[in-house]
Amino acid sequence: MERQLNIRSDEAYQRAHRLAQRRGESVTTVVTEALRQAEEAYPTPREVPPEEAAETIRILNELSKRASEAKKPGATSDHLDFYDEFGLPK
Q1: How far, CA to CA in Å, does 83 sit from each of 34, 59, 69, 86, 88?
Q2: For the chain, what are the domain ranges?
Q3: Is the model's pLDDT at 1 over the cut of 70?
Q4: 81: Cβ–Cβ under 8 A, 6 or more apart, which residues?
Q5: Which of 17, 35, 84, 86 is the most exposed place for a label (fewest CB within 10 A)?
Q6: Span 2-38, pLDDT tens digits
């Protein structure tokens, strides 16, 4: 069964017809080839297996633990000294 694709763009229409004429091919062939090339340029991302995801999370947790152990005494990330009681910069 043939399907139809309607694209309502004057620019797409003109480009497809110009290219088809230059290549001596049908508009359908030109558009199909352009879509094939675009699809190859953006391959489907691979699905990460649960075991691999779990290992990545384990590694990230280990790195986070190491980083927290390496912080300097008294170091904080609250930045309260930069703001007044209304949350505005001092």
Answers
A1: 55, 35, 28, 8, 5
A2: 10-41
A3: no
A4: 90
A5: 86
A6: 889 899 999 999 999 999 999 999 999 999 999 999 9
Q: Decide which of 44 and 79 is more confident.
A: 44
Distance from chain centroid for Cα 38: 15
Q: Which residues, including other chains, have CB under 8 Å from residue 84's CB and lie 6 or more apart? A: 90
Residue whose C-alpha is closest to residue 34's, from 17, 18, 21, 16? 16
Q: What is the mean pLDDT of residues 58-66?
A: 96
In the chain, the amino acid numbered 77 is S
Tell me how many degrees the CA angle 38-42-47 measures, rounded to the nearest 5: 145
- The Cα 25–Cα 48 span in angstroms is 41
Question: Hey, what are 70's tokens?
Answer: 């390496």
- Structure token pair of residue 22: 């230059």
Residue located via tokens 């309260």: 80
